[in-house]
Amino acid sequence: MLKKICKKILRPKLLNRSANLVLLLGLLSACQYPIRDHERIESDPYFVYLPATDYTQEKVESVQTPWAAKSHRGKAILAPDKNNLGILFVRNSLLDDAEAEFISAQKLLPNNPVPSLNLLRLYYILDDISDAKKFMEDFLKQNPPLERKKFENLLIGSNREEELVIFRDALSTIPGQELYAWEGLADYFFTKQEWSKSYFYLEKILQQSPYHKNARGLMVKMANILEKWDDVLVFGLSLTGTGERVPELEYYMAHAYYEKRRYSEALEWIQKAPESEKESIVFLELWKSCLLAKNPRADVSPLLPYFRKLKSKGVQFSEEDFFPTLTPEGKEAMDRNIFGR
């Protein structure tokens, strides 16, 4: 791995002049990772041990120096020992040796995901994303769907999100797996608020499957966050046109119509919302705003039962704070605003 990096750095034209000796030595030293990266690699908690005979976890952790670690090169025979020896080399920054041991363990244990998980982790932690993706593509092509799912679940269970992105990016190259992979990528980038990347994958999904419910639903949510009200209406109406809904769809539609000052239509969508989704401060705030925008003297008492349910669950607002127009003082203040007194 480091050898490949060094080969990219050392161009032949640098080797034919003695005047470049100092530069050459500097480039050779550049093939070693800085101390901070050594510390990150050596202490990374995501490399997985296997039950082994010779290279147990205790033995691996007892080796304290790279010099001692080098003496173990070529000593492991069984696949679990090779896997754990790879971790020994990782802990001591002997990264080419670690790569070789993980690859060897993987070949000997094709149905065990652990060596493959460790190899992916090694590529990822070194920011060698091209090798990571190439490795994942080969791994996915060689394994049946059940093994792919097992591998994915292990990444999910250990919260290895960035490696999961590499996995799904590679999975999208497998025929028949594109939509599933793109949906996972769109969800991931949505949660990270990387809107342009999420939109990129949602658009790919909808190009291939125009009525994909989850993609249209995520488009609605994203458009609401980005205040693209026309897009909210387009994708929201598309969902209702096919008899489908996503959570809080009516809220998003009402919000879009409210922002476009189409208050009657906003109120129609509010009435369509399921009762359970009306029990939130955000929903009630929008409902109240729609009523008062349409008619400053509107009766907001229909919201009270929902607000009181929220109060019983611990909401700290008082009724007077949230519904000022229900008090004589609040009504008087509203009249002053209306008539400019």
UniProtKB/TrEMBL annotation:
PROSITE patterns: PROKAR_LIPOPROTEIN. Signal peptide: none annotated. SUPFAM superfamilies: HCP-like. This is Tetratricopeptide repeat protein.
